[in-house]
Amino acid sequence: MAYMLKVGTELILEADHRDEIEKYKAKIEDFNGNEIYISYPINLKTNKTAFMKTGIQMIASFVDQESNAFSFKTKVIDRIKNRIPLIVLSFPGDAHLIKVQRRQFVRIETSIDVALQMSDSDVQFTAITEDFSAGGCAIIIPNKVKVKQGETANIHIVLPSHTGENIYLHTKCEVVRIFEKNNIHGASLKFTNLNHHQERQLIRFCFEKQLEYRKREMPN
Fold first, then answer.
1. Which one-letter DSSP state was computed for residue 105?
2. Which range has the worst mean pLDDT, 25-34, 150-159, 192-201?
3. Biggest alpha carbon–alpha carbon distance for the chain
4. Closest CA relative to residue 103, chosen from 64, 81, 132
5. Could you report the per-residue pLDDT of 93-133, keeping only the tens digit for each?
6. Are 205 and 67 in contact (CB under 8 A)?
7. How far apart are CA 73 and CA 67, in angstroms?
8. Most buried residue, 18, 153, 171, 195, by CB count within 10 Å?
9. What superfamily in CATH does domain 10-99 come from?
10. Cα–Cα–Cα angle for 46, 37, 202, nearest 5°?
11. Could you confirm whether domain 105-206 is CATH 2.40.10.220?
12. Residues 151, 207, 74, CA angle at the centre, nearest 5°?
């Protein structure tokens, strides 16, 4: 039995179609040994129900109730008519799940728009991240803006999503380090007041980004 998987768990599915990677989401309706039964997937780009041919191979990913992220290889093995139409996916078993590193160690090099309001000086500015994780980020500090180590701030984060609609998060952060690199002035920030929903959104964003990198490294 697929112990790690639960009925109702959302799967993110990635299929490589020629030069483009299509992403879908679907919920697990049931599972039986090495088979997973899912609702018909929704294409994250078009937001439309997708028809999947038998034999198509994909990478599936999910986040469990403890906010741990996993991925595994799968393929469509059947389609059945039940209470609702279902797609049957292969499941290699818990032993073949790839566990993604916990969020405090995962840093993704990506540019994300953020806006900060410093608590001590009341200085406000916008910046771009140099890297990002669900626990914090490194930002490029604009010219003439002064930021001190140990300062706290309110931070507003704009996460791009596959649906084309941005996700906006508001939380608090602390400046844990000031750095200079290639004549660029930067700061490392630690998120300090995330609620559970925000945390899961950040984990999901970082996990999907990391999955893109891992997929390129995985053998066919």
1. G
2. 192-201
3. 63
4. 132
5. 888 887 765 544 467 888 999 999 999 888 999 999 999 98
6. no
7. 20
8. 153
9. Electron Transport, Fmn-binding Protein; Chain A (2.30.110.10)
10. 55
11. yes
12. 175
User: Which of 129, 133, 100, 98 has the alpha carbon at shortest distance from 114?
Assistant: 129
What letter represents residue 81's amino acid?
K
Tokens of 194: 């995330």
- The boundaries of every CATH 2.40.10.220 domain in the chain are 105-206
Residue type for position 75: K
Cβ-based neighbour number of residue 203 at 10 Å: 21
Among the residue ranges 13-22, 63-72, 146-155, the one predicted with the least confidence is 13-22
> Does the global pTM surpass 0.70?
no
Count how many Cα atoms sit within 13 Å of the Cα of residue 202 in the half-sphere of its side chain. Answer: 27
Structure-block tokens of residue 116: 């900060």
> Which phi and psi angles does 198 have, rounded to 5°?
-65, -40
**Side chain identity at residue 98, one-letter code:** I
Average pLDDT for residues 189-195, to the nearest whole number?
90
Q: Which two tokens stand for residue 149?
A: 């180590």
Q: How far apart are CA 110 and CA 190, in angstroms?
A: 16
Question: Would you state the structure tokens that stand for residue 144, as one six-digit string?
Answer: 């003439």
Q: Give the residue among 125, 100, 103 at the shortest CA–CA distance from 114.
A: 125
CATH 2.30.110.10 domain range(s) in the chain: 10-99
Please give the structure tokens belonging to residue 204: 């999901």
User: Which candidate, 184, 137, 187, places its Cα nearest to that of 157?
Assistant: 137
